[in-house]
UniProtKB/TrEMBL annotation:
This is Bifunctional protein FolD. Catalyzes the oxidation of 5,10-methylenetetrahydrofolate to 5,10-methenyltetrahydrofolate and then the hydrolysis of 5,10-methenyltetrahydrofolate to 10-formyltetrahydrofolate. GO terms for biological process: L-histidine biosynthetic process; methionine biosynthetic process; purine nucleotide biosynthetic process; tetrahydrofolate interconversion. NADP(+) binds at residues 167-169, 233. Belongs to the tetrahydrofolate dehydrogenase/cyclohydrolase family. One of its GO terms (molecular function) is methenyltetrahydrofolate cyclohydrolase activity. It catalyses: (6R)-5,10-methenyltetrahydrofolate + H2O = (6R)-10-formyltetrahydrofolate + H(+); (6R)-5,10-methylene-5,6,7,8-tetrahydrofolate + NADP(+) = (6R)-5,10-methenyltetrahydrofolate + NADPH. PANTHER family: C-1-TETRAHYDROFOLATE SYNTHASE, CYTOPLASMIC, C-1-TETRAHYDROFOLATE SYNTHASE, CYTOPLASMIC-RELATED. Residues 7-122 form the Tetrahydrofolate dehydrogenase/cyclohydrolase catalytic domain. Pathway: One-carbon metabolism; tetrahydrofolate interconversion.
Amino acid sequence: MTQAKLIDGNAFSAGLRDEITARVHEIRDGHRITPGLAVVLVGEDPASQVYVRNKNKRAAECGMTSFEHILPADTPERHLLTLIEGLNDDPMVHGILVQLPLPRHIDSQKVIEAIRPDKDVDGFHPWNVGKLAAGGVGLIPCTPLGSMMMLRDHLGSLAGMKAIVVGRSNIVGKPMAHLLIRENCTVTVAHSQTRDLPGEVRAADIVIAAVGKPEMIKGDWIKPGATVIDVGINRVAAEGGKTRLVGDVDFAGAVQVAGAITPVPGGVGPMTIACLLRNTLTAAARLHRLDIPEAHPWN
Ligand SMILES: NC(=O)C1=CN([C@@H]2O[C@H](COP(=O)(O)OP(=O)(O)OC[C@H]3O[C@@H](n4cnc5c(N)ncnc54)[C@H](OP(=O)(O)O)[C@@H]3O)[C@@H](O)[C@H]2O)C=CC1
Ligand SMILES: Nc1nc(=O)c2c([nH]1)NC[C@@H]1CN(c3ccc(C(=O)N[C@@H](CCC(=O)O)C(=O)O)cc3)C=[N+]21
Ligand SMILES: [Mg+2]
């Protein structure tokens, strides 16, 4: 049995970040504009702090400015909304990301809707959700966008292929399904009440796993030769009291059957961050009405 080709998200995202860096330098030299990203984290969750630091580090590497706002877990909703209003009006800020999930006393949907749609680099505001669903131009959620870039790079045209998205969250599953529809796939969206999930997955040429259950999707569910995008990020116990990251797909099983597969780590995760920077560049260019060529014109 031949092994699946590994789709290398580290290498792909590094190339994408190089393209972004070149464009950032162009608009800095040509227009004296530096794209700025504001990242807001409420609470002291150490894992989220690592993500926020990573986003800021990558932004700086691409020549962008980043603004980090770390607020205590008991921050009142009103304070967060006031901070967002300030960022909406700040001309140095072109992209705003509020790290999810938020503490329970804060209404996430209210917070998402407070962000100016043209600075909403997560693509979670109803305006951007609507643009994606209706086929217009907005900002596309980073994880689905990065996943689609890897699919298009590996497969070329997706027209007529059967795709399954396992998971229907607003941040991954639903926007991924819309992108696949736009690329002319025949799309199934599965969730916790789907009957015969293994059977549904077996019919698919493209499998997007976004469930949040470690290694749930087994190798013998995968159609031979299928392309597998594993969005899952699960920290599980490992030997010696340590932990390790695994995806939502049983990688060892799936790699024997699939045509191509993304690893965890080193797959979708790094692409998500690169797409966040790309959306920040896109937002800055649109806010200043600059005519910059898109890195991937199909987006
Ligand atoms: N790589 C990256 O950049 C990112 C990775 N992630 C990771 O992706 C995964 C999904 O994240 P997210 O979408 O936020 O998760 P959510 O918990 O919001 O959604 C999970 C989805 O999976 C479905 N589901 C749960 N259990 C099953 C099951 N047994 N069978 C079928 N479907 C099931 C749920 O169904 P129902 O709707 O019926 O409850 C739900 O639709 C997580 O591992 C997360 O860490 C997330 C964001 C970015
Ligand atoms: N408003 C908002 N937008 C998000 O996009 C968002 C969010 N909230 N909340 C949390 C999830 C999760 N997420 C990840 C981003 C990068 C990696 C990533 O870089 N992963 C590395 C490994 C990182 C590690 O080693 O821990 C990899 O897969 O190779 C993972 C997960 C974005 N999210
Ligand atoms: Mg969620």
